[in-house]
Design a protein that fits this description.
mainly alpha; 4 helices; 63% helix; flat
C-alpha cells in the first residue's frame, strides 16, 4: 500500500505541564514495553518512523492539542 499526502503539523510555543509529563512518561513506558514484547524492536522503530502513527501515539498520550510538542517531548518519554 503506497501512501501519499501531506500533514500540516504547526509549531507551537510553551511547555508540557509537569503533571502531564509524569503521566505521559508512565503511559509511554507501558506502551513501549508492550509493543517491544509483542512486536519487537524493529517493528516498534518502524512504527515510530511513520509520522502519522507517531502523531497518533502522541495524541493517545495526551499531546493532541500540541502537535509540535510530541516530536520534542515524546522520545524522552518512551525511553
Amino acid at each position: 500500500m503506497q501512501r501519499s499526502g501531506r500533514a500540516d503539523l504547526p509549531l507551537h510555543g510553551g511547555h508540557v505541564p509537569a503533571w502531564l509529563s509524569q503521566r505521559m512518561t508512565a503511559l509511554g513506558a507501558a506502551i513501549t514495553e508492550s509493543m517491544l514484547l509483542q512486536y519487537g524492536r524493529s517493528e516498534f522503530l518502524s512504527r515510530l518512523s511513520d509520522p502519522f502513527w507517531f502523531q497518533a501515539l502522541g495524541s493517545v498520550m495526551g499531546m493532541d492539542w500540541h502537535s509540535s510538542g510530541i516530536t520534542m517531548c515524546g522520545p524522552g518519554m518512551w525511553t
